[in-house]
């Protein structure tokens, strides 16, 4: 390909039949610099400027924008550029003014949603402004998955097949990206990620319909992939192996905050960010509880066992409001995943995540004979019935928390103090420690 110029177009030959009796078709020459811009040469010798593109529905299209001779190359290039820019925005130059679909793109609606939600003008399912943590996850799914696959599409042209096709692309990893640099994680695909992204997109469209931004929700009726429930839990022998790994890691200089945080997650069943984000002001030592001003299920008071409370009280006093502070900055520790990965590698444990620790807590509670209602209260699950709404911190619930935490602590400590560094002992420089801000 070459750049289209007057000299180049003048030199283009008229197409001729390769064999006698074969119908002669037009030929094309495409511009090297502006993709989709070209010249069509007819058997009659007529030369015309054309553009070639795909419609918002994905159909290939080609249209003449002017005849060579009546229009200069510079004029044709300018018009072609304008039309191809419109195509990139989800418009179709072949649509007539009467039939052209007017509307906004998926990217524009997503940007509108984020701006309105951040300003507190969009309410979530709890009839309250959407949480910052939820918005952060929504923004991630929008930027990583939704915009690359559907961002330029006009919402009015979307079909169920388009959205389910995007879901399939996410599931097979089309939008996956490796980890960039030393910070942050990799962008992954999978059925669970795909289904949650479609749920986010459906919710965004529903908000836009309710507030009059668009006429209908094109994601309504989309069949979301069924995610595979994670049933992984640590058996008693695996808890003991993890405890031995924590003990040896502490002696080798593993990050003490990371070890303490992992132990705390096991002793409480807290979600990862709940456990890491516990502030000193939230601990009520008299009733043995942590009062969360906000969680996934709203504000909560969560009872914890004596072993878990002792662990918190053993943490060194610092200027940070958190029990598990970051090594620098004002936030809490965030490197627990990498510490856990190193421990599990040492203990030869597979497929263990911080959420596995939560499952393990619940499983030990069930093994000890506690009811689903009691376990749900210990885990802070949202109330699903009238009875559960009246669960509060009483002796029975406190006893359950003490017994579960004590049982797990006992298994962990079979081979030493399992990564519970002494407050007075000097800690060596952590080996391979991940110092999250």
UniProtKB/TrEMBL annotation:
The record's region (Disordered) falls at 414-437
Which InterPro entries does this chain map to?
A: DNA_brk_join_enz, Integrase-like_cat_sf, Integrase_catalytic, Integrase_DNA-bd_sf, Integrase_DNA_bind_dom, Integrase_recombinase_N, Phage_Integrase
Instruction: Classify the source by domain of life.
Output: Bacteria
Q: Does the keyword GTP-binding apply?
A: no
Entry-linked SUPFAM superfamilies: DNA breaking-rejoining enzymes
One family name in Pfam for this protein? Phage_integrase
Q: Can you give the residue ranges of the Tyr recombinase domain?
A: 229-403
Task: Provide the alphabetized UniProt keywords.
Answer: DNA integration, DNA recombination, DNA-binding
- Which family is this sequence assigned to? Belongs to the 'phage' integrase family.
Name of the protein in its database record: Integrase
Organism of provenance = Ancylobacter amanitiformis
